[in-house]
Amino acid sequence: MAVAIPDCPAIANNVNSSVMATRPTIGPEGPGPQHFVIPNTRELRAQSVHRLQIGLLGLAIMLLLVGLANIIMDRAKLADGGSESAKAAAASAEKKTGNDPLAVIGAVPSPEATSVQNANPPAGR
Predict the structure, then answer these.
(1) Which of 1, 32, 86, 95 could form a disulfide with 24 if both were Cys (CB 3.0 to 4.6 A apart)?
(2) For the segment 32-48, what is each residue's pLDDT rounded down to a tens digit?
(3) What is the extent of the structural domain holding 21?
(4) Hey, how many other C-beta atoms are within 10 angstroms of the C-beta on 55?
């Protein structure tokens, strides 16, 4: 895409530097390099398709990473499944002994006290 530049002595002699920032140099061997070429519709479409491809590739990679993380977490849960019953037994034994520090200092009612009150409702009701 050629840009027609009128013959101007200021451009040909490189006198005005502000004009040089926007127009290419015209020397004895012809016009100099043009720094900015307005893209045509084919180039704009190619850029849009390239951006779309990169975006979809990024989404696909993220989907694969999340799937891989999910598989790893499932395998870790399966491998840790045998010790799950031991953890549950230890937790129930801890609850039975009443090791609730807030209940010990009296900040909240103890679980045993609330279960006894629920088992023996008042006679008036």
Answers:
(1) 32
(2) 666 778 889 999 999 99
(3) 8-34
(4) 10
